[in-house]
Design brief:
- By secondary structure, this protein is an alpha+beta fold.
- The chain has one domain: OB fold (Dihydrolipoamide Acetyltransferase, E2P) (Beta Barrel).
- It contains 2 helices and 5 strands, in the order ααβββββ.
- The chain has a 5-stranded mixed beta barrel.
- It is globular.
């Protein structure tokens, strides 16, 4: 009987574990604990990070394009936590020219890249210092991703 319960428990764990989508990037030495606003204000050196947030703009750059992102903390699956306070902004430099269709404003993204340094920019009329990511790979989240979690409940009740 105990062996049968163990098999059922293992099968249930496997089924529930299969429901969770994996994180898009291997951590593999990248820093998850370094907010973009901290990286903009300090010289952190040449470090890999995994950041995420909402795309707020795409602009041409000398050698390609820059994607401007409003940073959000990430959950354990590296998805931006949209309800959490923002953590500043960062820019992703890519060697190709992008359009608003490649990186649509308002969509959420998770990116793994190397912090090159920071650059002066503006948010409206206010000066702002952006950390710059290069050698970046990104995962663009589908709209409504934050509502995709399966919600399980168990209850016992009586209907009359």
């Amino acid at each position: 009987m105990a062996g049968r319960r163990l098999i059922v428990a293992a099968a249930l764990a496997a089924v529930l574990g299969a429901c969770a989508a994996p994180a898009p990037f291997l951590v593999d030495g990248a820093r998850l604990d370094l907010p973009a606003q901290v990286a903009a204000d300090t010289d952190i050196g040449d470090v890999d990070v995994i950041w995420g947030g909402m795309i707020v703009g795409v602009r041409d750059h000398d050698e390609g394009s820059e994607i401007e992102v409003l940073a959000h903390p990430l959950d354990r699956r590296q998805r931006p936590i949209t309800q959490a306070p923002t953590q500043g902004r960062f820019a992703i430099r890519v060697p190709q020219r992008l359009t608003r269709f490649d990186a649509p404003e308002g969509r959420y993204v998770t990116v793994r890249g190397r912090v090159l340094g920071s650059a002066e920019g503006r948010i409206g009329a206010t000066p702002y210092r952006y950390p710059i990511l290069v050698d970046a790979r990104w995962a663009l989240w589908k709209q409504g991703f934050q509502f995709d979690d399966a919600h399980w409940s168990f209850g016992v009740g009586v209907a009359l």
